[in-house]
Design brief:
By secondary structure, the protein is α/β, with parallel strands linked by helices. It has 21 helices and 21 strands. It has three domains: 89 residues, no CATH class; 250 residues, Rossmann fold, CATH 3.40.50; 151 residues, Adenine-n6-DNA-methyltransferase TaqI, Chain A, domain 2.
Length: 567
């Protein structure tokens, strides 16, 4: 009973077990962690058929966990006895130690830490035998299980406010006969610096919203000497960890990418950088966590950092059928990159971070191409405006079949750098949309990746409103050839530059402030004009070919009509 088991068919086992309960109890267990307690009690019952409150208290040795277990035993006594006879010890252990968010209760937002993330974290923390290690927000104790199984520490602690989650973690470590101590409490409110903590791991549930509390103000005062505003809940966790960490300690935190670039969190990022708390940032690939298909990042925090190492590990993963993972080789490559500059990592100064508004997206700083002499988009753009936010109902009301000379342009009207020549007509253009009118030769760039880029050609008798996630840019033609800029941005090099400055979320997007930072090779005007002329010629050829293809497709559709109906 003291071995961690990893078997297939956990869902089948759980379903078979749930069939032993009434419909009402099945629904209850679907939304709670009580099933773990039931399985554990069934294991105890296999050893001792005289199971009672005293026996439970002697085994579990944690008052709140023992109280909860006895309440579960009292409610499901008959089911527990039946389970103890119909399931083997191995099967019961496999359910308790199964580590998968798919089997987590539907009403709970538990952050299940995959074992490969735990293995990576242990190496990033450089866990030593002499360490006192805490898991802030330990949940079901996944990370602590991995530490216990692979490393020896002076002391391991998990702390969580959720009593049910702590019960599961306590059960697991009781079965392993480990010396991990699971504490019940709110680490955002209580101080643990008396423990002289060496290492802290943080993996909050994704999408968690911070409560309106003052704990973060107390910690910012302690760390920075002043209060700092922010919105992302992950900073509350990080501040609490830093406030409890000893001077030689280290923190590793898993977070969604929003925290790396959100404008609302600019001030806290700036302060953490300037005060030397940020050591490294690692961007991980998408699909490592079943509950979130997005990319995530790892923050490594410690004291006295004069520079920051950025690691772009977005392409380091082992592909799986449903979601990705990290092999031992993948983990080793990321760990090496966290210790020295490599192809995927680079040491960045605080001054460089300040130039990019303290964005903590490694892709912005690590590039595999060079632009020796460049000019920024901000230097050549006279004006950058966003597309109008017109909703579908408004567009439907404005759209007409009449030839009015008024049109609107959407993202889908741009394909392969060419704007659709048959844009939807609208009855009129309201005054509030006049600032979104596209000017002739405006450069159009989509806000979202994959980036769509085109140059507008507006007839004198028409007006076109840009809508949605489009940027309209008026280029200063005295400084640069606009067609050359379009050619560059449509190239692999230009697209890589746009991607470098994009922010990862559900979709990669580029803000106006980052768009202004896009670098363009500053070649001679003669070279620009030569490239622009060739590019324009290719665009003309592309348009001619596209129209020819449209005619071919139209003729294909007419063959049957001509052959079968026109006799």
């Amino acid at each position: 009973m003291n071995q961690r088991l990893n078997l297939f068919g956990i869902e089948e086992l759980r379903n078979k077990m749930l069939d032993l309960f009434s419909i009402e109890d099945q629904q209850r267990l679907e939304y709670s962690l009580e099933l773990y307690g039931i399985v554990y009690l069934a294991l105890l019952y296999q050893e001792n058929s005289e199971l009672n409150q005293e026996v439970i208290e002697n085994v579990i040795k944690k008052e709140d966990a023992a109280t909860l277990l006895f309440a579960i035993f009292d409610r499901y006594k008959d089911n527990i006895k039946q389970i103890s006879t119909e399931f083997t010890e191995k099967e019961l252990n496999s359910i308790i130690f199964h580590n998968n968010v798919e089997t987590a209760p539907k009403s709970k937002a538990y952050a299940v830490t995959p074992d490969y993330i735990s293995k990576l974290t242990i190496k990033l923390l450089d866990v030593q035998q002499s360490d006192v290690l805490f898991d802030f927000g330990s949940g079901l104790g996944d990370f602590l299980l991995e530490v216990h199984n692979k490393h020896k520490c002076q002391k391991l602690y998990g702390i969580d406010l959720d009593v049910e989650a702590n019960l599961v973690a306590t059960i697991r470590h009781s079965l392993l006969q480990s010396d991990v101590e699971i504490l019940t409490g709110n680490f955002l409110e209580k101080t643990y610096d008396s423990y002289n903590i060496d290492k802290i791991f943080i993996h909050p549930a994704f999408g968690m919203i911070r409560d309106d509390t003052d704990e973060h103000n107390q910690n910012t005062l302690k760390l920075f000497g002043e209060t700092v505003s922010f919105k992302n809940s992950v900073w509350t966790y990080i501040l609490a960890a830093l406030a409890n960490l000893n001077q030689e300690g280290k923190v590793v935190c898993i977070t969604t990418n929003n925290a790396t670039f959100n404008l609302s969190d600019f001030e806290i990022r700036k302060m953490l950088v300037e005060k030397g708390y940020l050591e490294s940032v690692i961007s991980l690939p998408k699909g490592l966590f079943y509950e979130i298909p997005l990319s995530v990042s790892i923050f490594i925090m410690s004291h006295g950092n004069q520079k920051i190492r950025m690691i772009n590990a977005e392409d380091i993963y082992t592909e799986g059928r449903r979601y990705n993972s990290l092999s031992e080789t993948d983990i080793e490559q990321i760990v090496i990159a966290s210790m020295k500059d490599t192809e995927i990592s680079e040491t960045i100064s605080h001054e460089d971070l300040a130039q990019y508004d303290y964005s903590l997206n490694p892709a912005m700083y690590i590039v595999d191409y060079e632009i020796q002499n460049s000019i920024t988009f901000g230097e050549i753009a006279k004006q950058i405006t966003r597309g109008a936010g017109i909703n579908k109902a408004e567009l439907d009301a404005l759209t007409t079949t009449e030839k009015t000379g008024y049109h609107y342009l959407m993202l889908q009207d741009i394909e392969d750098g060419i704007i659709n020549s048959k844009l939807p007509a609208i009855s009129s253009i309201e005054e509030k949309y006049s600032k979104h009118l596209i000017k002739n030769n405006n450069l159009l760039i989509s806000k979202n990746a994959p980036f769509k880029i085109a140059t507008a050609e507006i007839n004198m008798n028409e007006q076109i409103v840009a809508t949605g996630n489009l940027y309209c840019i008026e280029i200063d033609q005295d400084k640069i050839n606009p067609i050359y800029v379009e050619a560059y941005l449509q190239s692999d090099l230009g697209n890589a530059e746009l991607s470098r400055l994009s922010k990862g979320g559900a979709f990669d997007t580029i803000s106006i402030s980052n768009l202004k930072k896009v670098r363009i090779p500053n070649i001679s005007r003669e070279q620009q004009d030569q490239i622009a002329n060739k590019f324009q010629g290719l665009k003309t050829e592309q348009e001619t070919t596209r129209k020819k293809l449209e005619r071919i497709i139209e003729n294909k559709s007419e063959i049957i009509k001509e052959g079968c109906y026109e006799q």
